[in-house]
């Protein structure tokens, strides 16, 4: 019988006692949690502060998602103000978010993905560095007009992960 190997880093409670910072560094380098074992059973999981805050933000988003799914798939014809409010619930300004997570949330709101092929997240981060914003195009036109969203922000320098962003403002424009 072959033992199943975990796809995440593991450590022992003894190693945590010796050097907790080594375990945090292991989590940071792997970009995931580290399972802590005590006598061949999982005793817990260790995360970096950034990983924990990202999980909390994603949990908050997922809890709000059923409310968002009740909304129409496209912005209301009455105007973009209501749709902007929905966007602001899905994208919390001032909080750190990964470029991948930002793109997934924008796609869920009806925008065209920015992750085109290999390196899409890198392109998003570069666009943000160069212009201070990431521009999204809504899939469906509203009253014959194209709608774009400008996500204004900056790269989060408080984390070692290159794709973390801080959203400052969100604008919707009709053309």
TrEMBL record:
InterPro entries assigned to the protein according to its UniProt record, in alphabetical order: YefM-like_sf
SUPFAM superfamilies: YefM-like (SSF143120)
UniProt name for this protein: Type II toxin-antitoxin system Phd/YefM family antitoxin
Family assignment from sequence similarity: Belongs to the phD/YefM antitoxin family.
Source taxon at top rank: Bacteria
Organism placement in taxonomy: Bacteria, Bacillati, Bacillota, Bacilli, Lactobacillales
């Amino acid at each position: 019988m072959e033992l199943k190997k975990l796809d995440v880093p593991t450590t022992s409670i003894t190693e945590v006692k010796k050097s907790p910072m080594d375990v945090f560094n292991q989590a940071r380098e792997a970009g995931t949690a580290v399972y802590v074992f005590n006598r061949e059973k999982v005793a817990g999981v260790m995360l970096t502060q950034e990983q924990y805050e990202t999980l909390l933000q994603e949990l908050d988003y997922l809890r709000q998602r059923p409310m968002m799914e009740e909304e129409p798939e496209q912005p209301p014809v009455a105007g973009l103000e209501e749709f902007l409010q929905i966007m602001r619930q899905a994208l919390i300004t001032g909080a750190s978010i990964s470029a991948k997570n930002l793109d997934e949330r924008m796609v869920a709101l009806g925008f065209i993905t920015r992750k085109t092929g290999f390196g899409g997240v890198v392109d998003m981060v570069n666009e943000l560095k160069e212009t201070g914003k990431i521009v999204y195009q809504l899939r469906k036109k509203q009253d014959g007009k194209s709608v774009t969203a400008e996500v204004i922000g900056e790269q989060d320098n408080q984390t070692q992960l290159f794709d973390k962003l801080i959203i400052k403002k969100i604008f919707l424009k009709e053309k």
